[in-house]
Write a structure and sequence with these properties.
By secondary structure, this protein is mostly helical. 68% of the residues lie in helices and 0% in strands. Residues 1-16 and 320-330 have low confidence and may be disordered.
Length: 330
């Protein structure tokens, strides 16, 4: 692969910096989101789950607010848009972030990362019901079946789920279900709102922060201190895993399209598993990686699209037709 051309300096000022190659940004996004589950685990060592989520949303909102100021983005103006964004913030941020934080009190970060990979499966199952343009196909139905078979493999269903915290696992799976619920809601209510994706997401994160700021004092007490490592983990989780990751994702969607950009989903559980095992020393049974691969294969099938039919080739004109065409002046 050849390197991108160097920027040409302008006589009026210094050269503009080019964005890194999209493959580097894709790898960075995969690493950031893959390590998010490790950061959640470290954050909950010093803070309550709601506090981890509040700090995450606060840091992520700050990053997007700076990006909006730099790009001179305008906030949504209608009360209707803000109302829909509040619902989206609950399903896409406040609820799943909190559920993952609570889940990782009792389950490994590796399992949480693998549960996150079931989001495309939930999304396809929901879209077949909620979105009329998503028609079931044999490939998609097979992908759903294969994916949920992988979930049962990860959970060790044949062993009666022994040694597994069912409450924590259920929370992680519910968090993964919350994402496609939010995506479908956004698709139905905020398409064509007139605001940019950055403005909508920045406003959505702000509303999620407000929601957690209201809920957190009701269920937790103020932290006795601010331990260094958990504090850094929460700040990194928000600034990188929520703020910077969103900016990277928008850039990838714009440059290479949503189909390629969403492939990052299939790298997240792999990185989360490697990070949990190597950094946190979490135990890994054979069924966890095997089941994860089956889940990813099923998710890939549900996201595949049928090939567009080739345009019909007009039949070769017969000699009689050629003579008729010439005589009619066609």
């Amino acid at each position: 692969m050849s390197a991108p051309p160097a920027p040409i300096p302008s006589p009026a000022g210094p050269a503009r910096l080019q964005a890194p190659d999209w493959r580097l940004r894709f790898a960075a996004l995969s690493l950031i989101w893959g390590f998010s589950f490790l950061l959640i685990k470290v954050g909950t060592d010093g803070y309550a789950p709601f506090q981890v989520t509040l700090g995450r949303l606060l840091s992520g909102t700050a990053v997007l607010a700076v990006a909006m100021v730099v790009k001179r983005e305008r906030l949504p103006r209608t009360a209707r848009t803000w109302g829909h964004l509040a619902v989206a913030a609950f399903f896409l941020n406040a609820l799943p972030f909190s559920l993952f934080a609570y889940a990782e009190l009792t389950i490994p970060s590796t399992l949480a990362g693998i549960c996150n990979a079931t989001s495309p499966l939930w999304g396809m199952a929901l879209s077949l019901v909620a979105l009329s343009e998503d028609r079931p196909t044999r490939r998609r139905v097979a992908g759903l079946g294969l994916g949920f078979l992988g979930v049962l493999t990860v959970l060790g269903a044949w062993q009666g789920f022994s040694g597994l915290d069912l409450t924590g696992t259920a929370m992680a799976l519910l968090a993964s279900l919350s994402y496609p619920v939010g995506w479908i809601y956004v698709r139905r209510t905020l398409a064509g709102s007139g605001s940019s994706a950055l403005a909508l997401t920045g406003s959505q994160l702000f509303l999620g922060t407000v929601q957690l700021a209201v809920v957190t004092p009701l269920f937790t007490s103020a932290p006795a201190g601010f331990p260094l490592l958990p504090t850094l983990a929460v700040v990194a989780l928000g600034a990188l895993g929520t703020g910077l990751a969103v900016l990277l994702q928008y850039g990838l969607v714009t440059e290479v399209g949503p189909t390629t950009a969403q492939m990052v989903t299939y790298f997240i559980p792999v990185i989360a598993t490697v990070a949990g095992v190597t950094v946190l020393g979490e135990q890994l049974n054979w069924n966890t990686p095997v089941g994860a691969l089956v889940v990813l294969a099923g998710a890939a099938l549900t996201q595949s699209r049928p090939r567009a039919p080739r345009p019909a080739t007009p039949p070769e004109p017969t000699p009689a037709r050629r003579r008729l065409s010439r005589s009619s002046g066609a």
